[in-house]
Amino acid sequence: MRLLDAAQVDAALDDLVLVDRLAATFRADVEMPVRHHHPIPAPTGPGSADAMLLLMPAWTTPPVSRGQPAGRIGVKVVTVFPDNGLAGLPAIYGQYLLLDGATGAPLALLDGTMLTKRRTACASGLASRFLSRPDSRRLLMIGTGALAPELIRVHSRIRPIEEVMIWGRTAAHAEALAARLSAALPAAVGRAVRVRAVPDRAAAVQAADIISCATLSRTPLVEGAWLRPGQHVDLVGAYQPTMRESDDAAVRAAQVFVDTRAGALKEAGDIVQPLQAGEIEEDDVLADLFALCRGEHRGREPGDGRSITLFKSVGAALEDLAAAELAVGQAAP
User: Fold this and answer.
1) 138-142 and 163-167 as β-strands: parallel, antiparallel, unpaired?
2) What is the pLDDT of residues 179-189, one digit of tens each?
3) Is 52 found in the same domain as 101?
4) What is the CATH classification number for the domain harbouring 13?
């Protein structure tokens, strides 16, 4: 069985290749039960935040005749401990086990934290291909955690981003991330990109062509009153029904898309809460990545510079499976 640590997973995955692999996997036949949530109450005692254990299995359809490549089975085990930041630790840890679909034999164990970061950002990049304006040049990143630099880089490779604005609850964190990416991002995308921290979230939302948000917020950070025609909103955090990053007005103003309909309608606070309040109906969720990748919905129509699009992701196990297979195939022996 191969072991791939975080550095090996990172080195094996190219953003645009992974975006293409995700698109192909959403077009394919993959079994993907809705992920299992197991709450862990206050693990470090009274006053601490509840933690979560997540199990995310998926498997490809096994071969029907000899000569076809064997299918694969994968499962990711993830822990989310929101208070870890107080001790200088990541909030999320994960491991991914890849198995042979024909025998169940273990093939590889991969660092799931890196795998999650890379596939999550690339899922947003895949959605952006369908939903953002091709001429999008200004990106706002709300949040300064581990996903922020991944999302910034992928969005900047999908669209011709010239300016990145970063907003965080702690201004010093936004400034530090902007300083780090000012040199790293142009090298990663092969062109000049201005990166700066911004103090005014509302003004930055209004100025951006793409707004990406990756936080654990329980209160809206993107308000519909701030949005303007032609923008694309990418909501990556708020993975529980009690969390949200957009308000009802933002969801009402936008054409709404999700990564998977089953997951978003059950888990995504940005969708679940306005549904429960009667602000939107299930039919207002126009399509998921399955429908977009299979050509059942075109996303933003060519030449449409007016519509506001909103993509909400909660994560899908098939994304992990696609990324793990690609990483194992591309990693150096």
Assistant:
1) parallel
2) 999 999 999 99
3) yes
4) 3.30.1780.10
